[in-house]
Amino acid sequence: MQVRPHAPPTGADAVPDSRGLNLYRADPDLRRLLGLYLPADLAAHMEPHLDRLGALAGGALDDLAATADRNPPRRCATGPAPARTRNPSSTTPPTARWSASPSGNSAWPQ
Does position 97 have pLDDT exceeding 80, yes or no? Predict the structure, then answer.
């Protein structure tokens, strides 16, 4: 009997799930950095706001991201509508707008 090694997870499965986790509380280094870079009164004022944002990021926003992951955008079979513009240069092929410079270098726009 052969034992096959377990393949490591790939893609989204390789990232640990943080659903429901307050991302501000989960990052102790951020709190220390705020103490280094912000005055104490400003850090104290920002604390509840950052805590609320951390809860949103690990909760409602994570749920919305999961919904978006399960429902990718669908492309219309006929493609997007053609662009309507009055700028004639936008209808000119890109190669026609480029020409050789006096030194012969064609990488420079006119």
Answer: no
Which residue type is seen at 97?
A: R
3-state secondary structure 47-83: HHHHHHHHHHHHCHHHHHHHHHHHCCCCCCCCCCCCC
How far is residue 30's CA from residue 36's CA, in Å, rounded to a whole number?
10
Q: Yes or no: say if 97 and 110 are a contact pair by the CB < 8 Å rule.
A: yes
Look at residue 50 in the predicted model and tell me its pLDDT: 96
DSSP state of 42: H
pLDDT for position 9: 78
Reading the block at residue 57, the tokens are: 């990021």
Check if the beta carbon of residue 98 is closer than 8 Å to that of residue 110: yes
